Structure formats: C-alpha cells, structure tokens
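Hey, I'm writing a tutorial for new members on how sequence and structure tokens pair up, and I'd like a real worked example in the thread rather than a made-up one. If someone can provide the structure for the chain below, I'll link this post from the tutorial.
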Amino acid sequence: MTHKDLEVYKLSLNLVEDICKLTKGFPASENFGLTSQLRRAAVSLPSNIAEGSSRGSTKDFIRFLNIASGSLAEIETQLVIAERIGYITFDDALQNNLITIRKMLYRLKQALSKKLSK
C-alpha cells in the first residue's frame, strides 16, 4: 500500500484543486500574498502525507502527518482571513472538507501510534 491508496491523500488532492479554483477569484494584488500562501499550504498537505508514507518509518510518517495537520490549520486560518477581508464566503462544504481531512489525519496518527507502542 502506498500514499496513493490513502483516502486522506485523495481528499487532500481534491482540496488543492478547490483552493486553486477559489483563489483564481482573488485580486491580482494578492498573487504574491494570500493566494500564494493558500496554494503553498494546500500543496503541502498531500505532499507531506506522501513524503511521510514513503519514509519507511512509522515514527517519520507520524511526524509528517503532524506537519500536514499544521498545513491544514494554516489553510483554515487563511480561508478565514480571506472571508474576513471579503474575498470569499467560507461555505459549509469547504469547512466540512477540512473537518473530514482533520479527522482522517488524526485517526491515521492514532493507528500509527498504536502500531509503534506494540
């Protein structure tokens, strides 16, 4: 099994697409600001899942999943900022996607931690 088989990886790729589409509507003045920040954080999410799963160590995988969780929190914060300054409406569907990914990352970390403690 590889990272490509993980549902959380697949959902995080979908989130990258959603973020790219969403930020296309941001003002050009944000190209090197919020647009870039959001896209980098979004790309970081599946990238860290992939890298962690490829490291060959459960401990490393957990560490990279923690980094992915940090990227997810960064995305959520930047979306709140984008909404507060009037660029987007942070809708329920997007919020629910973030929650689902967060829960999946958490459960995967728990499962891997149990594996470590055996």
